[in-house]
């Protein structure tokens, strides 16, 4: 028995898991409908078609099933399964108790679907019933048990990674452990990919969704992609969220696509399929619902200009609480309509911005690769620890939080203090030159606070 298989048996020997039948699950994946694999849809969709995927997760099977019915009626391309926060923290005992209360009282006691507690046999009935690809959205640093349950259920797209699901969400979870736990996830996904269509892995581009400069977003996307591909994953999605400047989004899309191909080739993985995902605005949403709808429409137009393969939608209720299934379905239908009437858009890339961003990304990537550690994950770990990679507003204790950004008059996110991030001098001067830095510190801090709530 391989070391990985030994580890899998230990992970799945959990009191909250029904007996896990490895042979049966492998047989299921091998014979699963191609329609359940988003990698199959990416491969076979028309070039100008963008897949539309909402967010959404309810605690009970009944409500999750009803949500999916609404989505299917609204012409969804990819169904979401958002996991509750107890499961994200591996607290299956509380998730189990809250699920029972949710079912008994018909009140949602969890903020998502407790997949581990429902189990794969139950969940698979729902997934195969709708026969549409499902994307697992979770935010878990240790997702080993969750991923095993997801794939056994028929969920063949797994979002997240050791950096993107740790730095924005966690304060103390050990980063080195996250890298090793996600290495397990990549291997399991790679192994199952040999049985049918590839399992698609997707990185979480929005990060803290708060003034993250494009260079940091892209570097983290590329590194999670490389960590995934080196374990044998053959289908990967890089992603980023609407940043507040249409011009900057178009440039970011162009650079991330080009760089993903370039770095995949560097490790002899050019045979892997790389896709681009665009998240509608992830920051604070306007409370005015009409404005919220305008923002959602604008995001859809930009996604079309960026040439994304998939768009992840938000709802007009975003500012006031957890969206209803009706609001979620309405957004899907509206987004599909907007994409249909747009029918693809020309996109002109600002050459100077593209050159500056490319130089920044290459400089940071080079610094990561030059770390003396012997494996890529250790190089990345050291780079975060040393502040070479620095995510604004991350709560994690290992993150330096010395990189400071602000918006310029055109709403582009600019680096005004680079900390230990190796931004080349020419690029740094360009970034700062776009901002009015003659103001006193209090005024600059007030500008940053204003920039966080820019869409409200």
Q: Would you mind describing this structure in some detail?
A:
The protein is of the alpha/beta class and 456 residues long. It has a single domain, classed as Methylmalonyl-CoA mutase (TIM Barrel). The strands form 2 sheets. It has an 8-stranded parallel beta sheet with strand order 1-8-7-6-5-4-3-2, sandwiched between helices. The chain has a two-stranded antiparallel ribbon with strand order 9-10.
How would you briefly describe this protein structure?
It is built from 18 helices and 10 strands.
Q: What topology does this entry show?
A:
Layout (H helix, E strand, L loop, with lengths): L2 H10 L9 H10 L6 H7 L6 E3 L7 H13 L5 E4 L2 H4 L3 H14 L9 H4 L1 H11 L3 E4 L6 H10 L3 E3 L15 H19 L6 E3 L11 H16 L5 E7 L4 H21 L6 E7 L9 H18 L3 E3 L12 H18 L8 H19 L6 H10 L18 E4 L5 E5 L7 H9 L7 H12 L4
Parallel strand pairs: 1-8, 2-3, 3-4, 4-5, 5-6, 6-7, 7-8
Antiparallel strand pairs: 9-10
The computed structural class is alpha/beta
Strand share of the residues? Answer: 5-15%
Whole-number average pLDDT? 96
- In what order do the strands lie side by side in the largest sheet? 1-8-7-6-5-4-3-2
Number of domains: 1
Question: How much helix, percentage-wise, in residues?
Answer: 40-55%
Give start-end ranges of low-pLDDT stretches: none
CATH-assigned fold name = TIM Barrel
Tell me which CATH architecture applies here: Alpha-Beta Barrel
Order of helices and strands: HHHEHEHHHHEHEHEHEHEHEHHHEEHH
CATH class: Alpha Beta
